[in-house]
Amino acid sequence: MSKRLVVALSGGVGGAKLALGLSRVLPADELLVVANTGDDFEHLGLSISPDVDTLTYVLAGLDNPVTGWGRRDETWSFMDSIGELGGEDWFQLGDRDLALHVERTRRLRLGQTLSEVTSDICRRLGIGVRVVPMSDDRVRTRVRGDSGWIDFQDYFVRQQCAPVVHELAFDGATLARPQADIMAALRSGDVRAVIICPSNPFISIEPILAMSGMRDAIKLSGAPVVAVSPIIGGQAVKGPTAKMMGELGLEASAAGVAARYGDLLDAYIVDHADAAIGNVGARITIAKTLMTSVHDRKTLARLTLDAAEALASR
Amino acid sequence: MSKRLVVALSGGVGGAKLALGLSRVLPADELLVVANTGDDFEHLGLSISPDVDTLTYVLAGLDNPVTGWGRRDETWSFMDSIGELGGEDWFQLGDRDLALHVERTRRLRLGQTLSEVTSDICRRLGIGVRVVPMSDDRVRTRVRGDSGWIDFQDYFVRQQCAPVVHELAFDGATLARPQADIMAALRSGDVRAVIICPSNPFISIEPILAMSGMRDAIKLSGAPVVAVSPIIGGQAVKGPTAKMMGELGLEASAAGVAARYGDLLDAYIVDHADAAIGNVGARITIAKTLMTSVHDRKTLARLTLDAAEALASR
Predict the structure, then answer these.
(1) Of B295, B288, B282, which is closest to residue B270 (Cα–Cα)?
(2) H or E stretch at B281
(3) Does any CB of chain B come closer than 8 Å to the CB of residue A42?
(4) Contact yes or no for A280/A265 (Cβ under 8 A)
């Protein structure tokens, strides 16, 4: 009997596009989407999980197509008002989006895990596939800039990625237990592919891989690991990936990302712009990787599955 | 030198109308508005203070003239969304209003007192007069209905005052320390009047009076106590006052309210509809007590001050 499960590792916007594509070409019970929680933070007393939320909104069809984050048909009365009360207003929280943070925070305080809350909210929003946080334990990405270590959202949102990044750390990652469903899936012998979505490798994928046991579990699953490059012709589609690579002394290229994943990678899908990528130690597929339509998302999703299948049948 | 301070005890909607009137006819530093906090509760992980908030919005000119509670120009996206996430949606929280609850909750968790938070928020919203919670300690009004004791907001909002009220309790009131500025004012020898606003006596004023030392401090201040009846011709202007009086075996009338305040009362302002009130042990003023305009609010406010002055000059 052939293997069924696909495990996709994802950050926010870019990763969620491929996750949506996968959710459209796979039966719901064959896809497990693993969300980075290194970006999670506490703000205004609320527990906010940006990547979990972006995946949730995208998979529920509630995402804001203009911003890429947050909800569609959003209103901003809360933000208008929090400023006049002297509250912090550097992180944009739409009125509808806020409901998710308030409800999650309430449930976490009652002792529910982030996995339980996420699972229930996905069910209520009609999402068939499973979205799981990488861990129910606390992991916090931190960034060392010229002025020392700062919290990720301080870097990413408040300072809009302006600081030069010298180093990244994932506080808590080595102690955090990978979420149980992920490990159970990887150990099941039933995984046909591990897909690394086109997210920022440093801040979206590496927090997941930094947890103790995660890289080994992926390796031991025996499943082919297929990544889609988030870099096209030296540029990031969105976000600070290329800037960050330069600052970290790495080549801002599809090859540079592949080098970062190292021997984990079995197959790698890069854009036509990077067709001359050369040997990166993984089987290369050249494709259109910019996903501007749902059709693009599904097409790229199928390509990742095809790449995994080609490797499995070696 | 004549005494300067006016201390007004108030609940929400009705009381806030008179508090606004007082704020328009007195210099800002001569009015201290004491807000009932027996209605306060925790909901969705947020600390909500309905009477403090109504007073804040009314005095800042931000109140919703249609509902009497909440903010004007309000939007409801949060409420739309919290329901679909499985959150509790029986208590209406507008998007702008929510900013106040989130910011207050955040600051309380940082260790600020409700007094400090309220004072700062009033300042930021341009309110000149002082609004103080009756206590920084926890007092919770509870209602005994046919099915036993329930929380006040459960009775008041979720069950819309439907249960028959057999008894009221103010949990924590005897241990709660009255807010320091109130006691300092009452002890200053500088209070020219204590005004009991036309709020529900049982659920808005009695929690304030139930705190240890409060009745005595009012008595010892030497200031005349002037109440405005919340009952007009046997009917409450708004809310369950008349219904509650009947259920508690009291006469649902202006006289019944006066009897409830007992010997605390020096002067009592009742509506023309209650001109035949008779002897209630306090000097009666007959006036139009229904406040439909700002002019009405100011006129009634001046009447309460005149009534106090008439007593002081005996």
Answers:
(1) B288
(2) none
(3) no
(4) yes
Tally A–B CB contacts below 8 A. 107
8 Å CB contact between A267 and A224:
yes
CA distance A139 to chain B (A): 22
Using the predicted structure, report yes or no on whether residue A224 has a pLDDT greater than 80. yes
B286 by Cβ neighbours in 10 Å (0-12 / 13-18 / 19+) ranks as middle
DSSP A51-81: HHHHHHHHHHT-B-TTTSSSBTT---HHHHH
ipTM at complex level: 0.88
Beta-strand pair B167-171/B140-145: antiparallel
Which of B96, B117, B118, B119 best tests the A interface by mutation, with the highest count of A CBs <10 A?
B96
At residue B97, the pLDDT reads 97
**CB neighbour list of residue B184: distance below 8 Å, 6 or more residues apart:** none
Q: Does A233 score more than 80 pLDDT?
A: yes
* Residue from B310, B308, B296 nearest B18 by CA: B296
Contact assignment for B77 to A77 by CB distance below 8 Å: yes
Helix (H, G, I), strand (E, B) or coil at A101: helix
Tokens of A148: 């020392």
Q: Where are the beta strands (DSSP E) in chain A?
A: 5-10, 31-35, 41-43, 46-48, 130-133, 140-145, 148-151, 167-171, 191-196, 225-228, 231-232, 235-236, 267-271, 283-287
Q: Which chain B residue shows the shortest CA-CA distance from A124?
A: B85
Q: How confident is the model at residue A172 (pLDDT cuts 50, 70, 90)?
A: very high
**A44 touches B at CB < 8 Å:** yes
Question: Given CB atoms, is B111 within the 8 Å cutoff of chain A?
Answer: no
Give this prediction's pTM. 0.91
Which has the closest alpha carbon to B239: B206, B198, B277, B273?
B198
Give the three-class secondary structure for A211: coil
Give the residue-averaged pLDDT of B106-110: 94
Nearest residue of chain A to residue B72 (CA atoms): A77
pLDDT of residue A1: 58
Residue B60 forms contact with A (CB below 8 Å): no
Q: Which residue of B has its CA nearest to A82?
A: B99
Q: What is the pLDDT of residues B180-221, one digit of tens each?
A: 999 999 999 999 999 999 999 999 999 999 999 999 999 999
End-to-end CA distance of chain A: 17
